[in-house]
Design a protein that fits this description.
mainly alpha, 17 helices, globular
Length: 412
């Protein structure tokens, strides 16, 4: 008996929901022990499931996709190597890698075989997560709970999506999907409402990192839809800009005007003090770093709140040294090149802006939670998102050649 299209879609929707939902786990679930254990087991199961699906379906990818994935795996290997060299427990490292790995590979699989179902499920979850979080922010303006990390620090101002500074790890994915729907003229009204809701909760959070990053994401994305800015807003230029901003903000510290405007201290809430301490530590172990451990970082920097370096480049140097940073930068620029390839498509520009916003936010934060890596998966699977773009492009080139030949014949 053949499976109808509607039944096949339902099967894909259910599979995608069951595998994507645990990847989007927020820190709120950490406060409910029994639920936290169930979702963690669920997440481990999805990791092995993605390996099984990959093996059974014998996924074929383009040369560019394979190269990016190879460097992504090499980056994770460098994180593990640093932990082994420094004799640090690899538990936190492996949990981090499994979560990110699952997000990337499921994204690549679903964009290749069930693109529409994937975006429908992500959008459904986006509406649920964002609206529930917004209502709870209105009901509990001072935060719902305190989240404890590594038994030595806690963060206030937490709601359904976790701490206010980590909202962006969800919003960048949800925003990207909403913009892709607007481009395809599907769910346009609901997508705009979702973007507005994320904007309202961004303002309510009072997080400088979140506000600035969301404004950058919002302005550049809608600018890209209004005018042709492919020469300015593409993977290459935006990635180079984000690296330049690292030097401007972290190295040279040119941000006094911004901090005064935002009403913040010129230490960026203690970040510059942490960075200065990390520079000293990095000089002592520059090759392989110190390994990934929140407890070790807090101890070495003599802080209780520093769970990470609050900058991705410094985090790479601290945990994996020059080796990890070199691999990470190669991976970033490979992703940028893949985006540049599709710079003349609106989808390519929107994802380029999202990637820039991710790199921009990473100047003062370091994101380890797996769901942010759905963005990496979408960039790798961009050619599948665009579908017939390459085919239509080759057809157009063929027509141009035919016209040139016909013109040549007429001249003869």
């Amino acid at each position: 008996m053949s499976i109808t299209i509607s039944n096949k879609k339902i099967m894909w929707d259910v599979l995608i929901f069951l595998t994507i939902f645990p990847c989007l786990k927020s820190t709120y679930f950490d406060t409910i022990d029994w639920l936290d254990h169930i979702i963690n087991i669920w997440r481990v199961a999805t990791f092995f499931l993605v390996l099984l699906i990959w093996a059974i379906m014998k996924i074929s990818l383009s040369r560019e996709q394979v190269r990016i994935i190879e460097w992504y795996l090499l980056y994770n290997a460098s994180v593990v190597l640093a932990g082994v060299i420094n004799q640090i427990s690899l538990r936190d490292t492996l949990v981090r890698i499994m979560s990110q790995f699952t997000a990337v590979f499921f994204c690549v699989i679903y964009l290749k075989y069930a693109k529409d179902c994937f975006f429908d499920v992500i959008f459904f979850l986006a509406e649920f997560f964002v609206y529930v979080n917004l209502v709870l922010m209105w009901l509990y303006p001072g935060g719902m709970y305190k989240a404890y990390y590594a038994r030595h620090a806690y963060l206030g101002m937490n709601w359904f999506l976790g701490n206010k500074n980590t909202f962006f790890t969800y919003y960048i994915i949800f925003f990207s999907v909403a913009m892709l729907f607007i481009i395809s003229r599907k769910k346009t009204f609901r997508s705009l409402l979702l973007i507005i809701a994320m904007g309202i909760s961004t303002i309510l959070s009072s997080s400088s990192t979140l506000i600035i990053s969301y404004v950058v994401l919002l302005v550049l994305s809608f600018l890209a839809l209004s005018v042709d800015v492919s020469r300015l807003l593409n993977g290459r230029t935006l990635t180079i800009t984000s690296v330049a901003l690292f030097f401007i903000i972290v190295i040279f510290r040119y941000f006094d005007y911004i901090t005064r405007l935002m009403g913040k201290s010129n230490t960026l809430t203690g970040r510059t003090i942490l960075w200065d301490t990390l520079f000293i530590l990095i000089k002592k172990q520059p090759i392989f770093g110190y390994g990934y451990s929140t407890q070790t970082l807090a101890k070495l920097t003599n802080t209780k709140w520093a769970l990470h370096a609050h900058d991705t480049i410094l985090q790479c140097l601290y945990e994996g040294g020059i080796v990890e940073l070199a691999i990470y930068l190669v991976l970033i620029f490979l992703l940028a090149e893949n985006l540049y390839k599709y710079r003349r498509t609106k989808e390519g520009i929107v994802l380029s802006v999202s990637f820039f916003a991710f790199n921009f936010a990473s100047i003062t934060e370091f994101y380890t939670r797996g769901h942010i890596f759905f963005l990496i998966g979408m960039i790798i699977g961009l050619e599948n998102i665009l579908g017939d773009y390459e085919q239509s492009k080759s057809i157009e080139m063929g027509k141009e050649k035919q016209m040139e030949l016909s013109d040549g014949c007429q001249t003869i």
